[in-house]
Structures
1.
Amino acid sequence: MIIIDKNPTADTRTCDWSKVTKKQLLDSSIQHIEDVKTGLELFSKILVDIATRHDYDKITDIVQFHEDFKTGFKQTTWWDNHRKLSRHHINMPDGVPEDVNLLDVLEHIVDCVMAGMARSGQVYKLDLSDELLQGAFQNTVEYLKSQVEVVD
């Protein structure tokens, strides 16, 4: 949980701007910068966790992964389960989590670029629907809001 102090004096929409001193504005601005830093640090920590867990079932379930792989994925036991375990195959309808977020979008982009560049030296066209991206955006907003507590 991120705990932040109430801070209405750094925005003309939330205070009587004619009564805010330069010192108050400076203090409020410093606080806002620190609050944003804290929020971004939360996302940074989550991204590190995502990176650590990325495609981990390729290792923990190497037997089934190899079984599917050697059929050219005509057999999809591992692949079908992988999309349930992973959040980044959002280009496939059954790979989109209900609470898809922008961190899932970033993992998808990085996964596709790294795989494409390493395997063939190019990246196939990536395309996600506006509806998915707007949903990911709103879910990310709601997630961050749920992680913030404002105190007086």
Note: The CA atoms of residues 52 and 85 lie 14 Å apart.
2.
Amino acid sequence: MLNYLESSNELLQKRGYRLTPQRYMILQVLQEAVGHLSIDQILEGVRKSYPHMNLSTIYRTLELLREVGLVREIHLPGEGVQFEIFADHAHQHLLCHGCRALIHLDADLLGNLPKQIELQYHFYGVTLDLLVAGYCEKCWSTMNAFNTSG
């Protein structure tokens, strides 16, 4: 985790910012998370170390970290806004309509689509976020069992 925070500090410095204690704590909470976090979950995680952190500081800090490219903001239907560490340029999820499970897809799934977009359209710095909604195997089986028994 230290390498991630060190590289975050370097990126912030290149953009003219410092790695303040508030930024450090938020990045640390996001880095340690298993999955995506809501604003309230981030606040809860930060308050374990610093109980006086307020919600407006979390909002402002996340906005800066998103603009700098350290944090990704994800809008999930019915779930609201969630945040995670920005790990790569392609980001795909499967969202189950039934149980609301969110599954990360392999970054290689779409092949070199960002590079193809760059070459064909001369469009650079491409990030590709994709949300595919459907049903996981368990929810699909449950739905089909219900439909065939009725």
Note: The helical segments are 2-14, 21-32, 39-49, 55-68, 113-121, 137-149.
3.
Amino acid sequence: MITAGDFKRHMRIELEGEPYTILDVRFQSPSARGASTLVKAKVRNLRTQSVFEKTFKTSDRIDEPQLEMRPVQFLYRDEEGFHFMDTDSYDQFALGGDDLGDAADYLVDGLGGIRSVVFNAKVISIELPQTVDLTIVETDPVVKGATAQAQTKPAKLESGLTVQVPAYMAAGERITVDTRDARCVGRAK
């Protein structure tokens, strides 16, 4: 068990039997004498992806969820959902688009480096790597004389995601995309 006074960003906690991750945390000292310091935490449910704010006293004791992280590979997507394979046991499982949330925008066949989040012996979501390499499939023509600091233009990627890329990039190029904010980091190495 941990106390609310120990909360940090990206820490995982369990509330009412559900696993959450802390997105943001603020400490607030009340003006009344003898009042306890409050902890305002913005949390995301790891199963449903819903986000809300919750207030705790610094002395509140919170359970840590018993999560297991397993390496998985994305195989393919069909009408049943998104199919993955556990790279240790070779077991396959499927998750729906609602289970994945924004993570579905980065998945292409054969993508590795992903970890499944297992809670109570059931896969509830996945955790993407910090960056993924994707190919530009559609974008405006290259602008002559454009530099890395110049304008950007929208580019549709092989996964279906659209991101802003420098004006000198063309269709067919591979780029590295930051999965936290859907931002083009640069050309893939």
Note: The two ends are 43 Å apart (CA to CA).
